[in-house]
Amino acid sequence: MDETKFTPISNIGEFELINKITSSTKINNKSTIMGVGDDAAILEFDKKVHRLLSTDMLVEGVHFDCAYSPLKHVGYKAVVSNVSDICAMNGRATHILISVAIPNKYSVELITSLYEGIHLACKNYKIDLIGGDTTASPSVLTIGVTVLGVADKKSIVCRSGANPTDLLITTGDLGAAYLGLQILEREKMIFEKSNQAQPLLGEYTYILERQLKPEPRVDIIEWLKEKNIIPTSMIDVSDGLSSEALHLARSSSVGIKIFEDRIPVSHHTNDTAKELGINPSMCALHGGEDYELLFTLPIKYHKQLAGVSDLHVIGHVTAQKNIVELVKESGEVINLTKDGWDSFIKHNQKHI
Amino acid sequence: MDETKFTPISNIGEFELINKITSSTKINNKSTIMGVGDDAAILEFDKKVHRLLSTDMLVEGVHFDCAYSPLKHVGYKAVVSNVSDICAMNGRATHILISVAIPNKYSVELITSLYEGIHLACKNYKIDLIGGDTTASPSVLTIGVTVLGVADKKSIVCRSGANPTDLLITTGDLGAAYLGLQILEREKMIFEKSNQAQPLLGEYTYILERQLKPEPRVDIIEWLKEKNIIPTSMIDVSDGLSSEALHLARSSSVGIKIFEDRIPVSHHTNDTAKELGINPSMCALHGGEDYELLFTLPIKYHKQLAGVSDLHVIGHVTAQKNIVELVKESGEVINLTKDGWDSFIKHNQKHI
Fold first, then answer.
1. Which of A337, B199, B209, B221 has the most Cβ atoms closer than 10 angstroms to its Cβ?
2. What is the interface pTM, i.e. ipTM, of the complex?
């Protein structure tokens, strides 16, 4: 590699960078069923189950801001966002390892709070914290999380199995976490200007909880198991509906059509979007951090889904390879091409 | 937790911090044989083998300095130091996940070099790179590594099995990596003052290689297997002989006596130590990063070890709980109480 050249990473973005650094990966062990490229790697050690492994790095100032995120919540969310990756494979998280690089300005008390959140999430989701590393950091708090999960071999779900005519389903509602972040950013600016200690955030409780203390959809994974339904493809909504739909389409070599009027948006999200002058659909499409599940199912399940309050059919799979379209309320059809949030391109500026 | 209090982490150090944040850990899954507290966690999924998991976080300015460490070497060493943790359990590394937080100043070319080192180490040690995360960093390059390994249930080795009268053995030679770092630091200072581009480092080749491109002792693990020898306790020398001996003693509730004249030190290390006016034994005891293995064996193996050039009996296990003693060449006996390198206390100042 010619290190004298200087191509900024923002020129190519995260996904192209990942392609570049993983393209020469070679597999040596027969236990490796799938490596890089989905929400988690798949390993085969047992006859009946596969093991799932996923890792994340969370950086202060990029993924969280200690000015408004209590460290207990940061710890909780660090676990939850990784549990969500295992859910996206139709699996159950079992073990976690957490590393922290800690700057001087953080006290023993603050790091203990961080771990209170980590332990609480582990307790809530029956996960064992089995390892980690602690080190000094010259600058910002950085958290490395690796989660291990398990899934029945027969019911594991990748991003790559969607078929034309499949239904596209999202759980819960979308866009709230993004608006929660906008309110927190606004209050931080007001606080910095006026030094007023306690902003009144009561009316924003729902969207703030969605931002600060998301919960992974373990309940949906259990429901799917109970009903013996296996999605054809699945992903969790961490970078925005648009980005995740593009991942499903590209991995499955299909197209996806999303109907704007079907995208579930909470009335809290609607109200705040109106207040801030933002289109709520745009929050759902490009905001991210909702940690809902997006999956596809054969059309035969349409009736069975009708009675389930937390599952929403928002579109369907098409044969138009890699094309994700949004059918707007006006009937206009637009191509969704943006990859959602990319920390290299929109570093610390999570604006739509 | 009272977050209004402020106890600096340097007041308590890394090991006390780890105790604090892991003491409330609860285990929910019966597959967890051992969590936090050794070189790797032990998981039971199979009948015959255990799975091993270990994680590390490497921070620019704390663990490596890009002013003198080529990124290809940084990548190689990131993998190797984790493979060494699996060796320390008498296991074999199989899979790895690597996350990187990348500052703006790093180009696509530099990150590609980092991954050339990662891929080379994976190739050399037959490890599959199966996952990772890439994100922006507002400050320094940070690398998160999680390694998965495997070991026969019957031959897995923890820190906790040493018995009085056992022999204490180290592989290879110690202290060279630390002196390599001192030379690099010195040349960096000279370069910064005089702006002379190419320092002449030829005479330091051995100690520089030990610092920049260490190799884990996979060969020793294979030798032990071949000879059907299972150590009673084992650890890898990452923080210095003194620190590692203390870990073995505390985990096994025994004491350890080390004879200074038995500590293997290369003549290169001796020469450079003399040049810099440092006691070479101190480099071995408190330097770290040698990635050799330190283990204990029943005394009956004494004869069998005699003919093996790369294994050195440097002392023995005693019944004096948690006491590690150094018998100096003069016959004087001193207590070793220091925990070796602690990034919170000696951040970026790895001096003895």
1. B221
2. 0.91
